[in-house]
Amino acid sequence: MPSERSTYDLVIAANRLPVDRVTADDGTVEIRRSPGGLVTAMESVMRDHDGAWVGWAGETGDAPEPFDDGGIHLHPVGLSAEDVAFYYEGFSNDTLWPIYHDVIVPASFHRDWWQAYQRVNQRFAEAVAALAAPGATVWVHDYQLQLVPAMLRRLRPDVRIGWFDHIPFPPVELFAQLPWRSQLLEGLLGADFLGFQRQADARNFVRACRQLLQARTKRDLVHVEGSSRTVRAAAIPISVDFKGLERLAKQPEVMARSAQIRESLGNPKVLMLGVDRLDYTKGIRHRLKAYEELLVEGRFSPPDVTLVQVATPSRERVGAYRTLRGEIEQTVGRINGEYSRIGAPAVHYLHHSYPREEMAALFQAADVMLVTPLRDGMNLVAKEYVTCRHDLGGALVLSEFTGAWHELHQAFACNPHDIEGLKQAMVRAVNTPAKDRQRIMQALRRRVSDHDVQRWAARYLAALRSAPDRPRLEQVA
Ligand code: ADP
Ligand code: F6P
């Protein structure tokens, strides 16, 4: 086992480590890649930086010893069964997640969940404080760790602290429902710089500080009451490792696998694809409804048209996720019962995680990529899809309620609540002449390649270094 250095100049803290440890009944330990966009993005950034990553290794109980994986130093934080139930499944994913995603399902408020959230955030702050070198840079991530910036500042006033919000930041009218709204804002104001996916998210945060803390604010700056500190809140949208993923997608084995996927689906004229964590924010039900109506109306029919829906297992013990899984699987069953033929299912439903190569092959195989969230901070799947389409094939149907839509305007836009509109976008994506689709794909790819995850990280770190002032141009990649 590699020995842990005592301190690091860059420490990142995120709820999850990039890999989960999974112990089987016979005691063997398997290391699996963790789900979600945060890990996809930060893993590629950390490969280029020498630093430590503090996070949960995905199992309950004592933290395993620190370990290295893929050239990244990983420092696990332990979560007990109660911490997982109250801090992770409860406060993070049944209180904050719904409030931060437009209350698509109702949020639950429990004081013992809040206690656990404070306790676990303190544990993360202490782990980071012990690892950070004097004057180090600490980059905290996402809604699970909003108290860490202030807790860490109390422990280590010498370090520079940034926080990045991977999900939306809600309008003050929704945020104000939280009984612990002031504590959350004060927790975040412990940072030097706060990054958000969209300007609207940064503005929502500044407005919440003004209205709920009576903080003095000026444009993107919030003055911290009782101190001389000012915190900047700005939009720096996250992205994908364009070069790395494109290289992967160009590998002959990946391209051959893509052809093989189409072949095993019976070489449909149109292959539609959805790839999402099985989450109610992703609009999977709306997508299936639109697809089913197109089948009913005879505008689509298998085997000419088929849909592959990859629904990655997620947060399976949280009630709303269990309910959603039941609904989706019932709908898929109904559609297939009605419209499949032997050897030609209308929907191929896959409830698994796959290696990156397989995902890249799937993206290349798909004629139409359906990204239809009701609300999504960014949606990296949309950016991954266009990155993999080096052949300029394919078409992206993209919800206006994703952060990605603010950058990828040329996509076939949709409002997933408007089922007729969604159907039209799907049909347009299929019927637009290939030359026009190629032109669109070229524009989408240019945007992602010019604004890749390396540039995102460089911009973020430059903003953090210069906070609360704006970074000078030469500091930004
Ligand atoms: P979120 O962070 O909400 O899950 P994103 O679209 O931003 O949503 O990121 C999801 C990430 O997880 C992407 O990198 C995507 O490729 C990956 N992913 C999603 N489903 C799977 C799966 N079944 N197997 C492997 N990777 C997946
Ligand atoms: O970015 C959204 C996000 O919630 C990340 O914070 C998280 O790591 C990922 O999606 C997957 O969710 P979870 O960690 O709850 O499985």
From TrEMBL:
Q: Which InterPro entries match?
A: Glyco_trans_20
Question: Which molecular function GO terms apply here?
Answer: alpha,alpha-trehalose-phosphate synthase (UDP-forming) activity; trehalose-phosphatase activity
Task: Extract the Pfam families matched here.
Answer: Glyco_transf_20
Q: Which GO terms describe its biological process?
A: trehalose biosynthetic process
Q: Name one GO cellular component term.
A: cytosol
Q: Which family does it belong to?
A: Belongs to the glycosyltransferase 20 family.
Supply the PANTHER family for this chain: BCDNA.GH08860 (PTHR10788:SF106), TREHALOSE-6-PHOSPHATE SYNTHASE (PTHR10788)
The protein, known as: Trehalose 6-phosphate synthase
